[in-house]
Specification:
211 residues, seven-stranded mixed sheet, three-stranded antiparallel sheet, 14 strands
C-alpha cells in the first residue's frame, strides 16, 4: 500500500473521501500528515491535536479484508490491529468500546470509518506527543511514519475477525467502568453485553460499533 505524507491537511479523512469520490485515489492507498487543523472525531466531533501527533487515513477494498470480517465490526478491527502494533512496541494502550485508544483512564485517540461503494476508509488519530486537557498521550516514543508502516504491515496479514474478537472480548472488561453516548446521553457500560460482531446489547437495544 502506497503512503503519501504531507506537512498539513485540514483532515486526512475528508481528503481521502473527496479524492475517492473524484476517482483521484484508488485503493489500496494511505495518507498521513504532520499536522491536521480540522480533524474528525466520533459522533461528528472535532479531533484536536498538535503538530507531530499521528494523523493517518487509509483505504482498502472490502474484498482485501478477512472473509469473516463484517461491516459492523470494521472500526473495532482496525483499532485492535493498531493496538496490537502498539503492544508489540511496549505500550500499555487498551481499547474502550468500541474503538477508542486509552492509556489508563485517559483517551489518547480513536478510529472512524466510512464506506464508499466497495471501498472502506479508516482514519486514526493518536496523541503521540501532545494532548488537549483531559486527554492522554501515548506511553512510548515512535515516529508517525514508522507507526503507519507497522500498521499497514499488520493490516496486510488479513488476520481473521475471530482472532481479533477473541482478544478484544477479554479486554472488554476494562470498558465497564466507563460510559458511552446514546442519543446525546451518557450511558454506563456496566450492564452492556458484548455480542459476537462487536456490538453491545443494553436496555434491550443493540448498538453497533461502526462510526
Amino acid at each position: 500500500m502506497e503512503i503519501c505524507w504531507y506537512k498539513h491537511l485540514p483532515s486526512t479523512h475528508k481528503y481521502m473521501i473527496q479524492k475517492i469520490r473524484e476517482s483521484k485515489i484508488l485503493p489500496p492507498f494511505a495518507v498521513g500528515v504532520d499536522f491536521q487543523s480540522a480533524g474528525i472525531g466520533s459522533r461528528g466531533n472535532s479531533w484536536e491535536g498538535d503538530r507531530g501527533n499521528f494523523y493517518f487515513s487509509f483505504c482498502i477494498e472490502s474484498k482485501e479484508l478477512s472473509k469473516d470480517l463484517k461491516l459492523e465490526s470494521i472500526s473495532i478491527y482496525f483499532a485492535y490491529l493498531l493496538k496490537e502494533v502498539l503492544s508489540e512496541l511496549g505500550s500499555k494502550t487498551w481499547l474502550k468500546w468500541p474503538n477508542d485508544f486509552y492509556i489508563n483512564n485517559l483517551k489518547i485517540g480513536g478510529v472512524i470509518t466510512t464506506k464508499i461503494g466497495n471501498t472502506i476508509i479508516g482514519s486514526i488519530g493518536l496523541n503521540t506527543i501532545h494532548a488537549p486537557e483531559q486527554f492522554g498521550i501515548l506511553d512510548i516514543e515512535i515516529k508517525p511514519q514508522k507507526l503507519a508502516l507497522f500498521f499497514i504491515k499488520k493490516l496486510s496479514k488479513q488476520i481473521s475477525w475471530n482472532n481479533i474478537f477473541s482478544k478484544y472480548k477479554v479486554e472488554f472488561k476494562n470498558s465497564l467502568d466507563f460510559t458511552f453516548h446514546l442519543n446525546g446521553e451518557k450511558k454506563s457500560l456496566r450492564e452492556a453485553e458484548l455480542l459476537e460482531d462487536g456490538s453491545i446489547k443494553i436496555e434491550k437495544k443493540i448498538l453497533y460499533s461502526l462510526r
